[in-house]
Amino acid sequence: MTISYYVVELIVAARWPEPHTYSWSQNMISDLGVPECLGETGRYGDGTLSSRYICSPWHTLMSAEFVLLGILLFAAAILLSPMLPKIPLGKALPYLAAINCLGMVLVGTFPGSSGEITGGSHVRAVLHPLGAYLELLSGIAIMAIVAHLYRSHRTYTAITLALLAVSIVGVVAALTSSHLGLGPGAAERVAIDPFVWWRIITGVALLVAPVRPALSRSVLTVPPNRT
């Protein structure tokens, strides 16, 4: 289900009206869900000067994808929660997953717009970034906890830690005025996408587990002598 996010993103970006094209390095992810056609904008959502074109004819599809994905991932988190270790950190994961899914739903329900800083919807101006921060920070927390809980599974843990490190670099890039040379849109993707990749990798790991009961010894359970 997570892969659909990238499919929808590509489809919506491709609908950018010519002669303009959606810039993967300069345009923000949320630009794809903006219902207004703002044309050339003078500022980013954080108030910094910019120059990017915003007009997403298929914005409804992008916003619907955020909401649907949040709901489906919440359902998946509920189904997987019985497999988690019965220790405080393990018990915290479903709550963090719920926060992450809530963030995605807020992002889709209240689409972002750089126009909000010049008299647009105050509700969207508050709830959209709130949802984005909830999604980002809870995703980082989930990867950090999983890396700790399943540290005995070295390959999986190494991948999780690598994605966690990339996400943190992206956060730093997004918060700096230079964006570390990545461009604001690219910096945002470096911060957010690692958790998306991690969900895909984790899903594949669950699907390819040779025997379903073996999950208790492989991906989703901490060995008793290492808790």
Main attributes of the structure:
227 residues; mainly alpha; two-stranded antiparallel sheet; 6 helices
Mean pLDDT, all residues = 84
The biggest sheet amounts to: 2 strands, antiparallel
Strand order of the largest sheet: 1-2
Indicate the low-confidence ranges by residue numbers: 44-49, 211-227
Classify the secondary structure makeup into a structural class.
Answer: mainly alpha
Shape: globular
Helix segment tally:
6
Which percent bin holds the helix content?
55-70%
Q: Count the beta strands.
A: 2
**Elements, N to C (H/E):** HEEHHHHH
In percent, how much strand structure appears in the residues? under 5%
Task: Describe this protein's structure.
This protein is mainly alpha-helical. It has one domain (63-226). It has helices spanning 3-14, 59-80, 88-109, 122-149, 154-175, 184-207, and strands spanning 39-43, 49-54. A two-stranded antiparallel sheet has the order 1-2. It is globular and about 50 Å long. Mean pLDDT is 84; it is low at 44-49 and 211-227.
Can you describe this structure in just a few lines?
The protein has 227 residues and is mostly helical. It has six helices and two strands, in the order αββααααα.
Produce the secondary structure layout:
Blueprint: H1 3-14, E1 39-43, E2 49-54, H2 59-80, H3 88-109, H4 122-149, H5 154-175, H6 184-207
Antiparallel strand pairs: 1-2
